[in-house]
Amino acid sequence: EKEGGTLGLLVAQGVRLRELIMAKASARAVLILPLLALLLWLAALIARTDAATPLDWAALAFLFGVAAAYAAFWLALSMLVNSFDWRSETNGVVLANLWLVFVIVLPSFVNIAAATLYPAPSRVNLTTEMREAAELADAAAAQSREAYLFDHPELAGAGAQLDDFYLQVLATDAAVERVAEPLLTRFEAQAQARERVVGLLQFVSPAIAAQTALNSLAGTDNARFADFVGQVGEFHAGWREYFASRIRAGKRMAAADFDAIPQFAYRPPADALAYSAALGPLLFTLVVTLVLAVWAAVHFRRYAIV
Predict the structure, then answer these.
(1) What is the tens place of the pLDDT at every residue in 219-238?
(2) Which residues are CB-neighbours of 218 under 8 A, at least 6 positions away?
(3) CA atoms within a 13 Å half-sphere pointing along the CA-CB vector of 108
(4) What is the pTM of this model?
(5) Of 28, 62, 67, which is closest to residue 285 (Cα–Cα)?
(6) Residue 203 carries which DSSP code?
(7) Most C-beta atoms within 10 A of its C-beta, which of 81, 185, 256, 279?
(8) Contact 197, 118 (CB under 8 A)
(9) Distance between CA atoms of 237 and 245, rounded to whole angstroms?
């Protein structure tokens, strides 16, 4: 409007600059927010969300709030850039570069910083060390079996009892786990430290904060994955003990025992945990948006109409 000469005419007709700016911002919000709500509603239908479950719709409402706050951030940022009274071409270039910084450069910087401060242990080295540990444990177990059979030659051959062999296999597995446990613990500790760095650096960009909040609400964040892995580990320990206890007791599997084999069922955490994890990034985005809007309002007070 200013470059075309219509801004001065609008103000001369009694239209305040603040009213004009709010009208333009509201027009864009009216286009974006209903479309966002429609897409979320369609996603809920595709996912067959139960309308009778308040928690599902509460999660969708929270999701809409995060997406709306992220859209408001970009709207406030565009208002701030326009308040500096640059030409429209300059505004477009500045906003495009800011998008690259917030969406691409800063997230890449966060990943590089986390990887530099807490580099992930090499999975190749981890696999190699575990393989070497397994080979050493197998070799030790083989020597034990050979010594045992040398002392009990009646157990060798086709008529040998398999119970002792199975006990040796259990001992071998236990030896491998004892060697691998510190390696896996070190690997997990390094990964957790890296995630803490990412959690702190997420507040350098509203794009990272919004993505973190969305991951928490969707249940695809690192905390949910760690909880899943922990439950899998607990189930595996119980599942293995179910068979190991029978091997140690020399019991054979009966038909009823097969029906009693443990079955894994993931127990998701309470929805309140996901909301609390998403609340921090959401509040950060809202605060940044408010700061940008106030900054833009201060600049527009000194904006030259002509």
Answers:
(1) 888 888 888 988 998 998 89
(2) none
(3) 6
(4) 0.75
(5) 67
(6) G
(7) 81
(8) yes
(9) 12
